[in-house]
Amino acid sequence: MDTKEPRHVSLETRLAAIVGPTLAGMGYELVRVILIGRDRPTVQIMADRADGALITVADCEAITHAVGAVIDVEDPIPGTWTLEVSSAGIDRPLTRIKDWNRFAGHLARAETELPIDGRKRFSGIVLGADAATARLRLDDGTEVALPLAHVRRAKLVLTDALIAATASRPPTN
């Protein structure tokens, strides 16, 4: 059995595949898609500007119009739904390998689907990631490799160092 292929494709994964190309064409990167609720679900989309500048309200508005139209055309969600678009923020989720590498040296919390050394929750300094694992240095100085396929959620912790590192950066051209 090929363990690289998912057994099923979640609606969130389908939504990411639908909206990702539109965002890329507009100069944005998809950080995360979450679907919340059942009767009238909310599609939450977090995005970054590809040029590294901070996302603005105008960016969120442009993304909302474009992505809303694409979701309407593709129609992956039965019934009515609501769309929320935001930046990833300072204490952002770590969803991509590049996020784990970009924020190396900062404090993060992570939760895995399966226990690693008897635990599922970890807090420590981000050491980076490769195609298979993300690494943290825990408070006791030990390092843990979290299989990316089993990271349920991971998020930066708001610290003074993180605020200083993410202060308004000029766009890169």
Q: What is the CATH top level name of the largest domain?
A: Alpha Beta
The largest β sheet comes out as: 5 strands, antiparallel
Beta-strand proportion: 35-45%
CATH homologous superfamily descriptor of the largest domain: RimP-like superfamily, N-terminal
Distance between the termini: 45 Å
Question: Rg to the nearest angstrom?
Answer: 17 Å
Structural class: alpha+beta
Mean pLDDT: 90
Q: Which outline best applies?
A: globular
CATH architecture of the largest domain: 2-Layer Sandwich
CATH topology-level name of the largest domain: GMP Synthetase, Chain A, domain 3
Overview of the structural elements:
This protein has 173 residues and is of the alpha+beta class. The chain folds into two domains: 11-87, GMP Synthetase, Chain A, domain 3, CATH 3.30.300; 97-165, Roll (SH3 type barrels). The chain has helices at 11-26, 57-74, 97-102, 160-165; strands at residues 28-36, 42-49, 82-87, 107-116, 119-129, 133-138, 143-147, 151-156. The radius of gyration is 17 Å and the shape is globular. The protein starts with 10 loop residues before the first helix and ends in an 8-residue tail after the last helix. Mean pLDDT is 90; it is low at 1-7.
